[in-house]
């Protein structure tokens, strides 16, 4: 059994990290699976516990900017981003100093991902441990990222020393990843810090839209793997299609459907009158939808009666870019037509 640490027992959690063990930690985005970034044996345990492919590098979580300086060169662009967005949901890829971090952390790349999370308990944990903490999302590889302690324990109980509890995470989708090691800064993964936000600090930011081909090396290795997918098929529903979805569900009264939509879509389309529909609300906008998305997918994944999940699509602008990126992956890019 893994221990649940709280505000009073952060020191114990830090001792576990120092001893080379795994402790899951809260951030503003999702829970991370923490280990001492300077201890190669400990970092290897992270890959094992998650079942994560070893070529997928980890994010190094730091308590402050000075902790980055030990491992990477902070150029002008990096400094500007850190000043404006840290602590916060922005992960910055930087060229590292020779041999500063083990291959296990970087996947053998000459860059590494750094992030200063906006969570007081985790900042305290990193300070007490005295080392930066690597942390992929604290889920089994391929499953939706955890936004609650119960999600972490569902996937990792008994495989980790413990989890530091800070309730539900606020944002619900993982941090924006920006690579500034090349000529033009490039968003490798969309998140709550949008391209528009980044353009307030940098003159040019690109978003690679193309899919990674079989023999191509992706910029963010994590992008090539199947992700966030429950065992039921997920369909993305555009606004004008809800009436058709309603008819489909109504005409198959012996099948059970999962529905993830705003309260407005739910009530205005009469879904509350269908007894074969299980509903998980997405709140009322794209921000609450991002917050609820992974919990909804996980809840339906635990329910064997559900074979199909219908989830609301949002415009791909601002936070909608990150939300749709996760939803498309969980559905294998399948829209209800
Ligand atoms: O919000 C978050 O970022 C959460 C919390 C726990 O901080 N962490 C998280 O970690 O989502 P993870 O490991 O699930 O995703 C990190 C992504 C992966 O797609 C990985 O391939 C990419 O960042 N990445 C890490 N190091 C990289 C590097 N040097 N170059 C390019 N991509 C990198
Ligand atoms: Mg992840």
Main features:
12 helices, alpha/beta, single chain, binds magnesium ion, 31% helix, 14 strands, ten-stranded mixed β-sheet, 18% strand, binds threonylcarbamoyladenylate, 337 residues, four-stranded parallel β-sheet
Structure description:
- The strands form two sheets. Strands 1-8-2-3-7-4-6-5-9-10 form a ten-stranded mixed sheet, with helices on both faces. A four-stranded parallel sheet has the order 11-14-12-13.
- It is globular, with a radius of gyration of 20 Å.
- Helices cover 31% and strands 18% of the residues.
- The chain is an alpha/beta fold and 337 residues long.
- It contains twelve helices and 14 strands.
- The mean pLDDT is 94.
- Threonylcarbamoyladenylate binds at residues 27, 29-30, 32, 56-59, 91, 93, 106, 109, 111-113, 115, 117, 135-137, 174-175, 177, 188-189, 219-223.
Blueprint (SSEs and pairs):
Elements: E1 3-5, H1 10-18, E2 23-25, E3 32-36, H2 40-50, E4 59-61, H3 65-69, H4 76-85, E5 90-95, H5 103-106, E6 111-115, H6 120-129, E7 133-134, H7 149-156, E8 162-164, E9 176-179, E10 186-189, H8 195-199, E11 233-237, H9 242-250, E12 256-261, H10 263-268, E13 277-281, H11 286-301, E14 306-312, H12 319-331
Parallel strand pairs: 1-8, 2-8, 4-6, 5-9, 11-14, 12-13, 12-14
Antiparallel strand pairs: 2-3, 3-7, 4-7, 5-6, 9-10
Bound molecules: threonylcarbamoyladenylate and magnesium ion.
* Overall spatial form: globular
Number of strands: 14
| N/C terminus separation | 45 Å
How much helix is in the residues?
A: 25-40%
Beta content comes to 15-25%
Strand order of the largest sheet: 1-8-2-3-7-4-6-5-9-10
The number of helical segments is: 12
Unreliable stretches covering 5 or more consecutive residues? none
Radius of gyration: 20 Å
Specify the biggest β-sheet: 10 strands, mixed
Computed structural class:
alpha/beta
- What average pLDDT do the residues reach? 94
SSE order: EHEEHEHHEHEHEHEEEHEHEHEHEH
Q: How would you name the oligomeric state of the polypeptide chains in this document?
A: single chain
Cofactors, ions and other ligands in the entry:
threonylcarbamoyladenylate, magnesium ion
């Amino acid at each position: 059994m893994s221990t649940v640490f709280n505000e009073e027992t952060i020191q114990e959690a830090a001792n576990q990290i120092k001893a080379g063990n795994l402790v899951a930690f809260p951030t503003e985005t999702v829970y991370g699976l923490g280990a001492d970034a300077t201890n190669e044996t400990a970092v290897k345990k992270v890959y094992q516990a998650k079942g994560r492919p070893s070529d997928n590098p980890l994010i190094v979580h730091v308590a402050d900017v000075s902790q980055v300086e030990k491992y990477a060169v902070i150029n002008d662009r990096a400094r500007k981003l850190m000043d404006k967005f840290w602590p916060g949901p922005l992960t910055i890829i930087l060229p590292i100093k020779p041999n500063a971090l083990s291959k296990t952390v970087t996947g053998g790349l000459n860059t590494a991902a750094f992030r200063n999370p906006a969570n007081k308990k985790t900042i305290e944990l990193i300070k007490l441990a005295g080392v930066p903490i690597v942390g992929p999302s604290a889920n089994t590889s391929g499953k939706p990222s955890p936004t609650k302690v119960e999600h972490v324990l569902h996937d990792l109980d008994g495989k980790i020393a413990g989890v530091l509890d800070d309730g539900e995470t606020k944002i619900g989708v993982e941090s924006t990843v920006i690579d500034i090691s090349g000529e033009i800064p490039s968003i490798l993964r969309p998140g709550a810090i949008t391209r528009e936000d980044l353009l307030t600090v940098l003159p040019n930011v690109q978003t690679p839209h193309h899919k990674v081909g079989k023999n191509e090396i992706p910029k963010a290795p994590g992008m090539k793997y199947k992700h966030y997918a429950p065992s039921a098929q997920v369909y993305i529903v555009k606004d004008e299609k809800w009436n058709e979805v309603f008819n489909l569900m109504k005409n198959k009264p012996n099948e059970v459907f999962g529905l993830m939509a705003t309260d407005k879509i739910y009530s205005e389309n009469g879904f509350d009158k269908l007894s074969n529909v299980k509903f998980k609300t997405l709140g009322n906008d794209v921000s609450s939808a991002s917050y609820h998305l992974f919990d909804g997918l996980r809840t339906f994944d635990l329910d064997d009666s559900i074979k199909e999940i219908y989830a609301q699509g949002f415009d791909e602008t601002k936070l909608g870019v990150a939300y749709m990126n996760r939803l498309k992956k969980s559905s294998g890019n399948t829209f209800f037509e």
